[in-house]
Backbone:
């Protein structure tokens, strides 16, 4: 079992097991605390996974609102969300959009689909 060990001001030491449901990060853009999956952080292409910039769904939504997402953006977002455990939500969106693969989306649907992906994540929390 992996755990963190923290020494309190009174000298006591507290150990806490690192589990899927008790690991958090701070959004690098807004400072909001968000739950994270360590497996995804360590499997990402970062030089140092412990120094990764984690961005919350709301800030990601703002990012997509500022620019028109590309197919690559949509695929990367959907892939990351699948790895985070949102596969069922993504498959439901396939039905809602009448597609069997993301590549079937029209360019005009990219922004709406990105918003739907992010809403599916926000609704699960």
Residues:
């Amino acid at each position: 079992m992996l755990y963190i060990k923290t020494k309190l001001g009174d000298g006591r030491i507290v150990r806490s097991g690192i589990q899927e449901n008790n690991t958090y990060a701070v959004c690098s853009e807004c400072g909001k605390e968000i739950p994270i999956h360590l497996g995804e952080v360590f499997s990402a292409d970062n030089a140092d996974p412990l120094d990764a910039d984690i961005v919350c769904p709301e800030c990601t939504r703002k990012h997509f609102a500022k620019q028109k997402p590309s197919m690559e953006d949509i695929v990367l977002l959907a892939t990351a969300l699948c790895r985070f455990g949102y596969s069922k939500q993504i498959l439901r969106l396939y039905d809602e959009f009448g597609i069997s693969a993301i590549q079937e989306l029209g360019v005009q649907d990219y922004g709406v689909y990105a918003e739907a992906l992010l809403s599916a994540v926000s609704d699960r929390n």
Observations:
- The mean pLDDT is 83.
- Residues 1-54 form one domain.
